[in-house]
Amino acid sequence: MEEKQPRRIGVLDLGTNTFNLVIAELNGDDFNVVYNEKIPVKIGKGGIHKKTILPEAEQRALDALTAHKATLEKFGVQHYSAFATSAMRDAANGQEIKHRIRKELEIDVNIIDGLREAELIFKGVQLAIGTSNEPILIMDIGGGSTEFIIAEKEEIKWMQSYPLGVSRLLEILTPADPITERDQKRLFEHLDDELTALSKAIATYQPKKLVGSSGSFDTLVEMIAQQFYNTTWSDEIQYAFDLADFEKIKNIIVKSTLDERLNMPGLVPMRAEMMVLSTLFIDYILKKYGLEQMLQSNYALKEGVIAEQL
Predict the structure, then answer these.
(1) φ/ψ bin of 272: left (φ > 0), alpha (ψ from -120 to 50), beta (otherwise)
(2) 57 three-class SS
(3) Per-chain mean pLDDT for the chain
(4) Pairing of strands 7-14, 30-40
(5) What per-residue confidence (pLDDT) applies to 310?
(6) pLDDT at 163
(7) What is the side-by-side strand order in the sheet with 30-40?
(8) 54-99 per-position pLDDT tens digit
(9) Alpha carbon of 177 to those of 35, 74, 187: distances in Å?
(10) Are 141 and 214 spatial neighbours (Cβ–Cβ below 8 Å)?
């Protein structure tokens, strides 16, 4: 009997800061990533708080998708899907840009709501860390939104998407460089105001473990590896933080200027502006809710789509 050949698919994740492409081969109930690339786009820059995508950001989006489509063709991928999240769903011209992408590039973009985004993130995280017999809190910090999911075993107990992406927070708070204590206080007060439903859900389900799935968490892992252990992260699908390491790298990041961060090992330039607020956000969640462990998941929305294909 002839052995069945793997099926190759592509997933495009049109985030607020990066447009991501993963190409995977599906073989039965397993998959293998054959290509993974992130292109900085920052489609929310200058307009996210005004609920619009500016013309120059729209052009960056078209250029990135043109490059990704060429990659899909190079790898012979005929079946692929595209998902757009916070910046495009909130923008008044999001549908207009979606139609332009369809007309010029023949890519059908599915603009998903926050709960669908959270559901896909959960499915991706499940692939990376497996199921947990105790409740966990999943956090995905995007550019436009941040998703929180409380899950136990294979079940989502609670989930919500908040307009608390780090690009949005930067435009709202415009912190000093380096950030001041007053700016930090403003950030924490804003989070207190926004996260009342999360606080109630955590009081109900009492998770003790935080699982992070985003570029901010990936960056923290890489910075810790390079600055504290003189190595690079080995691209494992999950990483268990030493919270003492997190505290040390947090203090380095929070005290730094943008120019200093641009030269920090493990910190890619496109994240240098955002890492202060995202690191403080993670620290806020850990300490406010008394979480005792923190994991990083290398899988998120894109891999959630793959999980559904499997």
Answers:
(1) alpha
(2) helix
(3) 95
(4) unpaired
(5) 80
(6) 95
(7) 30-40, 18-27, 7-14, 79-84, 109-111
(8) 999 999 999 999 999 999 999 999 999 999 999 999 999 999 999 9
(9) 37, 43, 15
(10) yes
Report the distance separating Cα 276 and Cα 253, nearest Å: 6
Enumerate residues 6+ apart whose C-beta is below 8 A from 42: 16, 17, 57, 60, 143, 167, 270
**Cα–Cα dist 243/215, whole Å:** 18
* Overall average pLDDT of the 17-35 stretch: 93
Angle in degrees, 0-180, between the axes of helices 301-309 and 114-129, rounded to the nearest 10: 80
Cis peptide before 55 (omega within 30 of 0): no
Nearest-Å Rg of the Cα atoms of the chain is: 19
Q: Which amino acid is at 190?
A: H
Q: Which residues contact 260 (CB under 8 A, 6 or more apart)?
A: none
Whether the CB-CB separation of 83 and 12 falls below 8 Å is answered with: yes
